[in-house]
């Protein structure tokens, strides 16, 4: 909303006696200045700013120009909220409904204040969600690293288990072979001619 401060011709601030009026070119002047132009008796005059011809009788009062000065300051403060990064801690700076009622604020300013309050709440909620999202991402990275570490340790345990099982299998096979050999019956020994005991020698017979 445009907040008018003073007339560009007489430089007097707009008030109840100097209500702003707009002409066909869009520029705004106070009513006394337009009356002075109208008293010149000309059917058309030139805008003091852009020099566009206009009919003084066609000037129209600016709607809402009779708003209190305090309400105009509220509009300015609301515009300031929209230019910066607002947070919930700025909510106490907004006027309460009781204060707006006390100063006789218009319906438009009340709606604007309520809307700004909702926007601040939404902005703060969005900021909190963003912080939580970042924290969740950090937690997810930590869990991913823990899972990767557990998988690595599991593979190590599986490898050690395979090696231990293989070693026990080889040891068991060796024990079975030795047991088989110990239970085998002794084979009879085969004697050779060299092993026969020497026979006693006989005396030769003497012929008579």
UniProtKB/TrEMBL annotation:
Q: Where is this region: Disordered?
A: 168-208
Q: Does the keyword Metal-binding apply?
A: yes
The family database entries (Pfam families) matched by this protein are listed as:
zf-RING_UBOX (PF13445)
* Top-rank taxon, per record: Eukaryota
Which CDD domains does the record associate with it?
A: RING-HC_RNF222
Residue span, RING-type domain: 7-51
> Which intervals carry biased composition (Polar residues)?
168-182
Output one GO MF annotation. Answer: zinc ion binding
Keywords for this protein: Metal-binding, Zinc, Zinc-finger
Q: Fetch the PANTHER family from UniProt.
A: RING-TYPE DOMAIN-CONTAINING PROTEIN
- What protein is this chain from? RING-type domain-containing protein
Query: Which species is listed as the source?
Result: Thanatephorus cucumeris (strain AG1-IB / isolate 7/3/14) (Lettuce bottom rot fungus)
- Please name the taxonomic classification of the source: Eukaryota, Fungi, Dikarya, Basidiomycota, Agaricomycotina
């Amino acid at each position: 909303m445009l907040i008018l401060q003073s007339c560009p011709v007489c430089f007097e601030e707009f008030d109840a006696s100097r209500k702003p009026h707009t002409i066909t070119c869009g520029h705004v002047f106070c009513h006394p200045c337009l009356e002075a132009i109208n008293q010149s008796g000309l059917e058309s005059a030139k805008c003091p700013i852009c020099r566009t011809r206009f009919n003084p009788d066609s000037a129209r009062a600016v709607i809402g120009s009779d708003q209190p000065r305090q309400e105009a300051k509220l509009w300015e403060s609301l515009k300031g909220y929209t230019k910066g990064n607002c947070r919930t801690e700025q909510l106490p700076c907004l006027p309460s409904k009781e204060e707006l009622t006390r100063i006789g604020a218009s319906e438009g300013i009340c709606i604007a204040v309520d809307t700004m309050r909702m926007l601040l709440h939404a902005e703060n909620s969005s900021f909190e969600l963003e912080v939580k999202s970042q924290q969740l991402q950090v937690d997810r990275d930590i869990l991913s690293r823990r899972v990767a570490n557990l998988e690595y340790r599991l593979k190590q345990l599986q490898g050690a288990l395979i090696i231990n099982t293989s070693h026990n299998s080889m040891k068991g096979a060796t024990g079975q072979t030795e047991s088989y050999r110990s239970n085998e019956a002794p084979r009879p020994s085969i004697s050779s001619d060299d092993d026969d005991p020497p026979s006693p020698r006989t005396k030769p017979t003497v012929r008579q």
